[in-house]
Design goal:
Layout lengths: L15 E3 L8 H5 L4 E3 L4 E3 L6 H13 L5 E3 L5 H6 L3 E4 L2 E3 L13 E3 L6 E3 L6 H9 L5 E3 L9 H8 L2 E5 L11 E3 L5 E4 L2 E5 L8 E5 L3 E5 L3 E3 L4 E3 L9 H10 L7 E4 L5 E2 L2 H19 L5
Parallel strand pairs: 8-9, 9-10, 10-11, 15-18
Antiparallel strand pairs: 1-4, 2-3, 5-6, 6-7, 7-8, 12-13, 13-14, 14-15, 16-17, 18-19
Helix pairs in contact: 6-7
Length: about 290
């Protein structure tokens, strides 16, 4: 629970605040950009909610925060905000919320599908969210992009009898996973679901393309709010930046409208603009590739 006595100095006066336990994961800034900003090492409240919609978004941030670093003295509507999760982003595609500290606040997603529902990466296990998933028919598959964002995947799999899918090179994080991806060629996991190995951030990192429209990118690719462009994080590349840039180039072979990352801002763009953005990113990282190690 957030502690007002430990609130960071940058908070403006009012009901909502961020305390010093914040790990700067960006979750609150994604959910309620009208209220939360980045100090550089943590988030803070730069403006109190001005209307009902902004307050609801700020309450979503309270529920989703992986470290319970956001507090408010006005709890009205908080219980209803919890039941809003998962939040629908597009028909049948949802943001789970309840981000987990185990994955440094990584985002996770839920796909409501007639042939069986999917969880992409893992939120923290909480019963309110489990009940919402159950109302929608449970979870049949859990796709794990890489080892960093597995969080409570084992608990979710046990709760719903779900099949966990992960690359063999990430298997140490989920040794009992039920389906293993081998090699570095794309794999059709089910109709409309294509696993695309994208090594670089980690050895066996994978993206998931759904309906040639939604690309779940893990820690491979996201949107920069500041640059207003697609972005890849070299400073948190744990395995090989060379391989990550090569994996970015591989994505030019696909068409999609959404980038849904584990860390960083999600974005929807027209296909041609998405293709242009990706081409620009690949070209911008290409000059450095010749000087990089493995």
């Amino acid at each position: 629970m957030a502690d007002r006595a430990l609130r960071v100095l940058e908070n403006v006066e009012g009901d909502f605040f961020v305390d010093s336990s914040c790990i700067d994961c960006d979750t609150c800034r994604q959910l309620a950009p009208a209220c939360f900003a980045d100090q550089g090492a943590y988030s803070y409240v730069y403006r109190q909610p001005r209307n009902r919609e902004e307050k609801r978004a700020a309450l979503h941030a309270v529920a989703a925060c992986p470290t319970a670093s956001i507090g408010t003295s006005d709890k009205k509507g908080a219980a209803d905000a919890v039941t809003d999760f998962p939040l629908e982003l597009a028909p049948g595609v949802f943001f789970c919320g309840f981000n987990s500290r185990k994955s440094f606040g990584g985002n996770s997603y839920f796909v409501d599908h007639a042939a069986g529902n999917w969880l992409i990466d893992s939120p923290r296990y909480v019963e309110p969210l489990a009940r919402r998933f159950a109302e929608r028919g449970g979870i049949q598959y859990i796709f794990l992009t890489h080892r960093d964002d597995v969080a409570d995947a084992e608990k979710w799999a046990k709760r719903f009898g779900a099949i966990r899918i992960i690359h063999r090179l990430e298997l140490a994080s989920q040794p009992a996973a039920e389906r293993i991806i081998d090699g570095f060629e794309p794999v059709e996991l089910a109709p409309e679901f294509l696993a695309i190995p994208t090594p670089g951030h980690t050895r066996g990192h994978c993206a998931l393309l759904y309906r040639d429209e939604f690309l779940f990118t893990g820690d491979h690719l996201s949107w920069s709010r500041e640059a207003k462009a697609l972005h890849a994080y070299r400073d948190v590349c744990w395995h090989s930046w060379r391989q990550q840039t090569e994996s970015l180039a591989k994505l030019e072979s696909y068409s999609f409208e959404w980038v849904l990352p584990g860390h960083g801002q999600r974005i929807q763009l027209p296909r041609e603009e998405m293709r242009r953005q990706l081409k620009w990113l690949v070209q911008s990282v290409r000059p450095a590739r010749a000087s990089l190690g493995a």
